[in-house]
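P.,

For your records, the input lines for the assembly:
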Amino acid sequence: MRFHTFVLKNLVRRRVRSTLTIVGMAVAVGGVVALVGISSGSVNSFLAIYQKKNIAIIVDQRGAKQRLTSTLSEDLGEQIAKIPGVKQVDTGLVDYTSLEDLGISALVVQGWIPDSPAMRALNVAPGGHAITAADKHGVLLGADLAESLAKKVGDKIPLFDDGEFTVLGIVKSPIPYEASSMWVSLKDLQKFMGRQGQVSGYAIIVDDPNDKKEVERIRAAIAALAPNIRAKTAEESVTSTTEIRFIQASSWITSAIAIIIGAVGVLNTMIMSVAERTREIGILRAIGWRKHRIVRMIMMESLGLSLTGGIIGTACALVITPLLGKHPAVAGLINADIANPHIIGFGIAMALGMGLLGAAYPAYRGAQLMPTEALRHE
Amino acid sequence: MNSHVQETPLFRTENVSKLYPDGQVHAVEDVSISIRRGEYVSIMGHSGSGKSSLLNLLGALDRPTAGEIYFDGQAYSKIRNLDCIRSQKFGFVFQSFYLLPILTALENVQVPMFEGRLSDSARLRKAKELLDMVGMSHRMNHMPQKLSVGERQRVAIARSLVNDPIVMLADEPTGNLDSISAEGVFDLFAHLHEQRGMTIVLITHDEEFGQRAQRTIHMQDGHVRRDVVSSHRRLRTPMPPFRV
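Structure tokens returned:
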């Protein structure tokens, strides 16, 4: 018999308690893995929008808490375009609108320049087309949004109080943010929102987005154009947006709570286990086990429970989260990035951490028992 | 006197006292004794006389509240790792056997060996040898609940020997056994003493078994009342003791 066989037998003999502890741990770890995966997926989704278009720098208003509240002059784009190394400047206005008749209260609407390279780069499904200068009150719908609204090319949509827009095309995108957005021409959005001459920001495409030194030089040159400008690399921009920071903060806070709950669960199980086996620990001490062996036994039992719970929880998160993401209530909003070695590793490490944390005190207590005191225990 | 007995004391207690946890009554009070290497000593006395407490103190299972205990010249209070002494030098046998109910006899015997450096196969081999020595090779895969009380004690004795201790400390090892099983256990102790030169310190209520030791310490109310060296020791050393 090996030492770990003995540890395993100790766990198996208390089947119900071991199972409940494993289930509790699996729920905690699964929840955290799902949340961290969703958080990571959101970052990747936004980043993918930029990477797909080779956007290296995002320019918005200094001090604006989020893209929606950023306001810059439309004329700034010409100055940025003159900086050496800048290949293309995309601009747009982002705002919220509602479709009360259709039961949607908050909808992201983007105003882009018709016929611009960015507009032409949209992946419009066959049967539709991107907005051109010739179109009047045309709108493009993300595929998920079109499905939710049950709209197709040629249908009419009432927008911005008194406007009626024609659906020109359906935009296919694997990125949830884009799939649930809508696009109109920049001039239409400026007019209906009362924001003439304003844009939310600029997306800068450079000759070589992988040349970090060159990107930094251009970023500094743009930032120097005006005091109210904030220029960030695409990655910095994504991770500093309020929405992303909120998602990350929420997932970490929830994770911290789950870790505490998980550790308390293991602590409870191991304290009960040590209390029940006080006499057994006394026997083991009396027949020659040293303190560190008692500590090792309790720690290994705890790690066995937590690791099993961690593996099951991570596996459940891997399977269930994508399925939940397909539910109509959240369709297009969740793009979990769980099948990622870092996140799986995080889940397992978290389980082991909870196991160690939960077993520390019971192990100390078990090791401190005097053999005679333990043997007297009934 | 047995040829294994040496003059140098293996255990020595100096004015050792142990208060019960209530702090009022002495389980052991002002006890000063010496036990030589290779000696076979029985401790006798009524319930509550302090004999088990004294054995626990000798075996480093408990700490005295006053006085000092020496093992092989070293004071317990100066030894940093008493666990080491206990695991390498002492073998314990208890009245209630204290076998782990989730393990077979063979597995129970292997448990103390986790502290050693033996390989899995060596551990297994040694456990089988010891179970064979105590006549339990035919029951080694049985759970303790499936063994008779005599068989359980034999497994416990095998377990106490796995780390090759030089001292056997037994607390009423035959208290739960019938007379035939008890006879067998004492025969085994005699064998260990005679053939292996082990120092045996055991507690018993039984006058006849007590007289088989070379020396009998009588305790009463926590004090040593009499310390008698037997002039007519009745050792029986059948070889091997538990063959079936």
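Two observations worth noting. Residues 179-196 of chain B form the longest helix (18 residues). The helical segments of chain B are 51-58, 82-89, 105-110, 120-133, 149-160, 179-196, 207-210.

Regards
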